[in-house]
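Translate sequence into structure tokens.
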Amino acid sequence: MFTLISTAVLALVAGIGIFLMACQMMSSNLESAGSNRLKALFAKTGKSRLLGVGIGTLGTAAIQSSGATTVMVIGFVNVGIMSLTQAATIIYGANIGTTITAQIVALGLSNGNGLSTTTIFAAFAGIGAFVALFAKKDLGKTIGGILAGFGMLFVGLSMISDAMDDFARLDSVKLFLASISNPLVLVIIGTVFTAIIQSSSVMTSVAITMVVTGLISLNQGIYMTLGSNIGSCVVALMAGLTSGLNAKRTALIHLLFNCFGVVVFLVGALVLRITTGGIWTYGGVFEHMFPGVPQLQLAMFHTIFNVLTVVIILPLTDALVMLVCKLIPEPLIHNSLTAQPHFYFVDEKMLRTPIIAARQVKLEIEHMAQLAMTNYDRSLRMVTRFDFSEQEQFKQDELELDYLNHELVKYIVRLNAMPLPEEDHAYLTTAIRSVSDLERIGDYAENITEYADILQSNKETFSEQAIAEIDQMRNLVFQVYQFTMKAYMENDRQAYWQAHDYEDQVDDLNEEMERLHIERMSKGQCTATVGAQYIELASNSERISDHLINVGKTIGGLYPRN
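Result follows.
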């Protein structure tokens, strides 16, 4: 008996491991193949709640991972692309989309008199491996990875099923499992197991094989499946806890939504039992609906449960969002001057979905550009008007720029080592240069503040004419900035060339400012100290526009100009 139990346990662990790896392989390759379309789809959810549910369903069914979908949604909410209401509807759809795995498992366990369906599907592991091995292009390798992951899914399922068959031969195991009949205990078991392995698909698949082999009843499998829905929230909670306020709220929406569905169905089970005198249970209902196919009975319950939960909660979405906002309110006091430098749009958890992390890197760089240019604007106010009211914030943002220069580059290097489409690898390579360019802008702004300190200590100021010229330079540099970031964020080549035209004007103005300075010096209208700071300021501004253009150049394919 010991040998049988040991063999069954090891086979079960191996089967779950293969199943998990298969899910991850399918998810990463499917996500890679459809990443751009999926990101565009999620970003255009619009105001239709049904559209959001549909997008969440199709997106999750496509990439075979509700966890990945939820992490994407949290990322979009975190950067303001998506509202909490839109995020909620996509999460609803993700719960429906994830049930496709249970349906696939049920199909694999539906063996006829001929060749086993599991064996047929498992053969895709070998086919996909050969395709990936001999493919020369990334698309071929991705397709091979998808096929191999699909096949491995059934290899793992076969091992899990064999292990359950071994357990089913042991009366002691069957008696022990039969003794666990309390619905709440079964829900907790499903929750804990799913939280540990971070995959509701594995939990549901194990429950289906246990029902098929007779280890547990259909009712037990149903309650364990309910628990898996709660346990699946762990991934979202981990992603949300390290992100912004609305990201935390999104993770809580996911948890409350799943808990709501489980509570509704538990109450429904109690009402069904009381009204029928214990004659009918969920298990009895689905056995009657799909007689003789226990694997389909549990798979269909999983699908119907998620669909009905969405139907019930969809009209209550506004109330759910309001509740979450009350549970996680806005902070009463926020002092940015005491905040430590940190990322705003990327975090460690996002590395689990490299495609989304690459998009977030671009948003982090956009934010970095905003910090640098805001400091440039502050430095000009200090030097021309001696307005030092934001000097402390300037220092804080400069620390943030230095932090991003070091830590964001490290993050990009780690991300670039992960499997990504070739276009994302190309982008990340240029992103490192962009980070350096933007940090240099911050350094030039810091230089300008030093000129302000020198002028103030000498009790000297720029003339009104010089200030007007500096304001003109500022306006041109900000035109370069605005068109550069439009080009960078939207891959807009026309915007880049507009930025380039303004940069040419900056160069011309820099030369003009030097000429005018010499004229004023010859007429005795300004001192040597004032003149030196003026020339350095103009030169620094011109260099800032150069670094901005460098950022714009990274979109590629700029020449020839149309």
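Note: Residues 422-457 form the longest helix (36 residues).
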